[in-house]
Amino acid sequence: MSTRTVTGNLAIDPEVVQAGTIKITKIRVIENTGEYRRGKWIGHADATTHFVEARFELGENTAATLHRGDPVIVVGDEHNSSWGDEDAKHYGRVIEARAIGVDLNRAVAQVRRTSKPDEQE
User: Fold this and answer.
1) Tens-level pLDDT at each residue, the chain (121 residues)
2) Which CATH superfamily is domain 2-119 in?
3) Which residues pair with 35 in a beta bridge?
4) CB contact at 8 A, 41 and 34
């Protein structure tokens, strides 16, 4: 696995799926990539799509906070994965998120802390 940091926009609203006893929040991040040439930014013709999964509190908070189009930063571990039925199997890279946040270069956010179960009265 390799650690990745990705910035981009959510392609769709977060999707929460049940996987055994836990819920996994799945998001797709569209990253507009490019490079500087002679001091000028040249965007690539096609954006890159990243498949991201978040579990536990990170997944719950992502689903409750983010929506399609929101600018985000994702940090996580990237690995190969497969999904779908045997006759229509898909393969790709998935980032297992360790942190997801709003990209404050392109948006403002209001922070509301969550409490841990042992902090509740």
Assistant:
1) 689 999 999 999 999 999 999 999 999 999 988 888 999 988 888 889 999 999 999 999 999 999 999 999 999 999 988 878 888 888 888 999 999 999 999 999 888 888 776 665 5
2) Nucleic acid-binding proteins (2.40.50.140)
3) 42
4) yes
The span from the CA of 121 to the CA of 105, in Å, is: 37
CA 56 to chain centre: 14
What is the domain partition of the chain in residue ranges? Answer: 2-119
Q: Whose structure tokens read 């270069």?
A: 105
For the record, the structure tokens of 94 come out as: 């998935």
Dist. CA 103–CA 6, nearest whole Å: 10
